């Protein structure tokens, strides 16, 4: 994974992330074969990137032979598509529903933050993996899957809702893209920097998990306080 996010600390952070992810996944004991493969693929994709991952690596990580892996998934591209759809497949319709109906902007913002952070909690490897692949310089299948999913988000409706809320006096005038960047950054950074913050603050996994869940309200409250007139 490119060492671009934390300067010289990138390798240390990736090592901590890999160790933590292995601990999270290994907590679950009873897997179906398909689920074992998907969890193994997540670890291999995270450690080696999409280009560096091989089907044999995934089979070894899952503790199965390569023939059985190919029986379930014909290629690593198929595997990756399933993983992405599991992560984003339920999130995108929820976001579209949030911004597709009438209501106060505050309620929509709170609902969006809840959905976004819930997705990241359920897929802790995904934020760092996607960022690394997006900055890899390669026209990878990861970029295609990610961009295809992101294009399902109703950005035009979100921008319009922000502008309308400002006109109604619910929030101060703000550039919609700036607000969207603020929200996404506050939602995702605690996942990207988890091992760093967890180590510095000597937090156990349950303690940090509790902190992440609390972020749903903390992020929404922080954003709303900053944009209320």
Question: How would you characterize this protein structure?
Answer:
This protein is mainly alpha-helical. The protein has a single domain, classed as Orthogonal Bundle (Tetracycline Repressor, domain 2), CATH 1.10.357. The chain has 13 helices and no strands. It has helices at 10-26, 33-52, 55-62, 66-72, 76-88, 91-99, 105-122, 126-134, 141-150, 155-167, 176-192, 194-200, 205-227. Residues 1-6 have low confidence and may be disordered.
CATH superfamily: Tetracycline Repressor, domain 2
CATH topology: Tetracycline Repressor, domain 2
Structural class: mainly alpha
Backbone shape: globular
Q: Helix amount, in percent?
A: over 70%
Order of helices and strands: HHHHHHHHHHHHH
Number of domains: 1
Per DSSP E runs of 2 or more residues, the count of β-strands stands at 0
Query: Per DSSP, what share of the residues sits in E-state strands of 2 or more residues?
Result: under 5%
Q: Count helical runs.
A: 13
> What is the subunit arrangement here?
single chain
Low-pLDDT residue intervals, each spanning 5 or more residues: 1-6
CATH architecture: Orthogonal Bundle
What is the residue-averaged pLDDT? 82
Largest sheet: none
Gyration radius (Cα, Å) is: 19 Å
Cα-to-Cα separation, first versus last residue? 42 Å
- CATH level 1 class label: Mainly Alpha
Briefly say what this structure is.
With 229 residues, this protein is an all-alpha fold. It is 75% helix and 0% strand. It has a single domain, classed as Tetracycline Repressor, domain 2 (Orthogonal Bundle), CATH 1.10.357.10.
């Amino acid at each position: 994974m490119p060492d671009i996010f934390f300067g010289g600390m990138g390798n240390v952070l990736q090592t901590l992330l890999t160790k933590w992810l292995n601990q999270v996944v290994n907590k679950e004991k009873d897997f179906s074969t398909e689920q074992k493969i998907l969890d193994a693929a997540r670890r291999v994709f995270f450690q080696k990137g999409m280009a560096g991952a091989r089907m044999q690596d995934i089979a070894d990580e899952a503790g199965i032979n390569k023939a059985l892996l190919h029986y379930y998934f014909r290629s690593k591209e198929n595997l990756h598509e399933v993983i992405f759809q599991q992560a984003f497949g339920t999130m995108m319709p929820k976001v579209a529903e949030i911004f597709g109906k009438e209501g106060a902007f505050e309620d929509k913002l709170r609902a969006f933050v809840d959905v976004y952070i819930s997705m990241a909690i359920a897929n802790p490897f995904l934020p760092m993996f996607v960022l690394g692949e997006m900055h890899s310089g390669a026209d990878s299948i990861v970029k295609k899957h990610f961009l295809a999913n992101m294009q399902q988000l109703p950005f035009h409706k979100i921008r319009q809702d922000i502008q309308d809320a400002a006109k109604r006096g619910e929030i101060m005038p703000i550039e919609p893209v700036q607000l969207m960047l603020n929200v996404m950054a506050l939602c995702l950074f605690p996942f990207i920097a988890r091992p760093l913050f967890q180590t510095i603050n000597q937090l156990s996994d349950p303690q940090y998990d509790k902190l992440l869940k609390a972020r749903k309200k903390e992020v929404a409250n922080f954003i709303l306080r900053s944009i209320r007139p």
